[in-house]
Amino acid sequence: MSPRNPPPAWRAAWSDRWLALRDRLLASPTFQRRAAAFAPTRPIARQRAGALFDLVAGFVYSQVLLACVQLRLFDMLSQGPLALNELATRMALPVASADRLLAAAVALRLVEVRSGERFGLGELGAPMVGNTAVAAMVAHHGALYADLADPVALLRGEARSAALAKFWPYAGASQPDGLRGDSVAGYSALMAASQPLVCEEILDAYPLHKHHCLLDVGGGEGGFLISAASRVPSLRLMLFDLPAVVERARLRCAAAGIGEERLRLEGGSFLTDALPRGADIASLVRVIHDHDDASALCILRAVRQALPPGGTLLLAEPMAVTPGAEAMGDAYFGFYLLAMGKGKPRSAAGLQALLQMAGFEAVREVRTRMPLQVGLLVARTTLAP
Question: Which of 34, 104, 162, 299 is surrounded by the most beta carbons within 10 Å?
Fold first, then answer.
């Protein structure tokens, strides 16, 4: 990362001296002991020590969550609090193991201790009930953890595991439009399961009522189109994705009751094939961050060519440097996409620059309610003279 607006030289020099002093103090065992003993600084010292330990223990925490998901603990507790022995029986665990898992889940606020020595849903466990999107992502992380077993090797391009690259086969395929149905089934199902996390956010932030036809580029199994169709019954729908994925979208859209008179599906590669025309608005939902700058620019230019003068593009994905969600955009997606073998997280400003290079104008950021999950940019094509 590089600063977009570097400070004056005198200010940078002063800041460097101050930060060097701060670093020496925080690294000093004597300062650490004194800060922990001094009443005014004790809460800060404890908070920072806890935050550092959470980084050390983060993998264990995530595996506790995975165990709760796999054992369907949240679903069991959704009907009401249960005692330890009853939970142990339902989870098919020894009582001692169930007790250990529940103690960990209580510490992580996934579960709470209730009256009568029973256990109920915690404030972080309750949202997991029936949440197939998050549950699918939790289960999927086994592939990511395999690739992150040696992070230094991954950074050097020497990683022995390529679990994510295999899961997302288009990332390394020279001709992704030739992938078979069985090779796209896993990632298509995951995308379909996780899509509800972002669809409503996008559609709440940018209503589609003034548009007549939506083209979803890289639309997967049609989750975003289905959500849009329910919001605007008059909206015509188009989807472009790999041929094998389009066949899955055809089945899902039919199951959602979207008739062929309203829907047009086309298969191909958005890196080499022209996109279908006729839409006045296009969407790229969690697509661009999967690609390097050259490919991202190629996709954006293809979308611009498909849109009419004055057409609109919605670009939605988790973005780097998002206030309050920096860890998600820069740390999580930074390493996830590295393991996947393609793409990188970008800030809203970086995406705006790519959109302008592709020929879009009037690019603006639209706030979503949960920027942790998705950020949204709206861009327009040039109006005809």
Answer: 299
